[in-house]
Amino acid sequence: MKPLAEHGTTARAKGRPAAGIPGCSCRPCRRAENAYDKRRRYLNQTGRTLMVDTAPVAAHLRDLFDAGAGWVQLAAVSGCSSSTIYNLLCEKNPQCRRTTANKLLAVRPGDCIPDHRRTDATGTVRRTRALMARAHACRTISKACGVDHSVLSELLAGRIDVVTIALARRVDNGFRQLAGSTGDSVRSLNRARREGWAPPVAWDDDTIDDPNAHPEWTGHCGTDRGWWIHQRQQLPMCLRCEQAHADWLAQHNHLEPMLRNQALFRARAESLSREADLAADARELIAYGASVEQAAERLGVTRNHLQQAMRRHPAATDLAA
User: Fold this and answer.
1) What is the pLDDT confidence band of residue 271, given thresholds at 50, 70 and 90?
2) Which range of residues forms the domain containing residue 25?
């Protein structure tokens, strides 16, 4: 039989009525029970009840298991026992403790997937290639990611379609360590340019793992403006911008040569001035205390686009430095 709780606790004061064990009426136990009841009444009055509905928690648990969560991993991450998780999943009781619900609702789908499960290798491949585009040598990437050189070579070549969760996490950790710095490997840089691999700044955290996503080299990729930014910054030309510029040329092919050239010059000038104005507006917002994310939202662009614009158009003080 499970031992009784110590004196001076709410559990000992209430006992176990279902097992025929009465509650304790000693002074420490009464004091603990009174304190518990007082806190419960206060929380109820302020709208923070100790108990909440089980249904949202059960729905979240089903989403976690659909995403590949493991029982052992979920219990370890949340700090809840497997029996508690099972009871909530089956909705045996209409309500559960708020603290338990908060623990489980805080778990994200990727936090509790067993290491041996397999996932799409798209994001892992993109991360290794992005580090190559930052001029990091293969041995540096291999050491930071904790992967063998042969495995790294297969990833860079795109010959691996699926990887284990453990490998994906190691590569992601290495990516976060090296993405903000620049290596010194000319060989890696030349290979990345030759293959057209996008650097880390061209990817957002929420798109790099999406097989249908495309790198955002310029903030306007897929448009004619993006093509001009590629040209001006001498960035590897992406297929979307190349196609967009070809469409622009086809749409203006009916113009006379002089008018067509004038339209080309206007398109080039607009791509330069708009980005410079965007960088200046962002610096003004940041000077008033806005974060980069807030400035990007205010200006109607992505955070990645705004950061690229600010790098390409530094302030006068930055140039002086």
Assistant:
1) low
2) 10-45
